[in-house]
Amino acid sequence: MCSLHWDYSLYLVTDRSYIGNRNLNDCVREAIQGGVTLVQLREKTASSREFYELALQLKEITGKASVPLIINDRLDIALAVDADALHLGQDDLPIKIARRYFGNKKIIGISVSNVQEALQAQEEGADYLGVGAIFATGTKVDADLVSLRELKRIKETVRIPVVAIGGIKKENAPPILETGIDGISVVSAILAEDNIYLAAKDLKEIISAKMA
Description:
- The chain has 212 residues and is an alpha/beta fold.
- The protein has one domain (3-211): Alpha-Beta Barrel (TIM Barrel), CATH 3.20.20.70.
- The protein is 41% helix and 16% strand.
- Strands 1-2-3-4-5-6-7-8 form an eight-stranded parallel β-barrel, surrounded by six helices.
- Helix 1 (24-34) packs parallel to helix 2 and helix 1 (24-34) packs parallel to helix 9.
- The longest helix has 17 residues, at 48-64.
């Protein structure tokens, strides 16, 4: 599996705090039907057992749709459910350690916020980068903001795919996409909306128009 061949255009990160009484599996299904191309399971408040069970359920849903499933942070869970990818932060397990257990055929992404971190991640073997936060976001209140200029510099500097994350919505997505990145990652822009399918579809249409 090669990360360069993945469609990074619309990358959904889960957060059940945005979906109210709705079922996460149903929400992810609708998002995929609307055009989501990657799904990352990121549930910071879930117990290990709950995280594992959610991952198993989503693996079945994403597998049927041929959409890669990415596990945030938890190498053990990623291994347990045979996930397609693992996403790490700057304070998580080092890439080289994760790679030792996860293997060379699996995808590992990492969060970065500047060119130096991006180059280091690429050197250490990251397959793609999540760059942010681009705008202030409720999912990571302590995240430093990354300018569009720095985002563009990162994209122009590295050879691996770059996805922007952080407070991205359909209203502010166009200038981000104009930097030449490979996709945008969203949480509330899809999961907080009443109609998840339409929210994903609207974003996908904006992405397609800008990346055509």
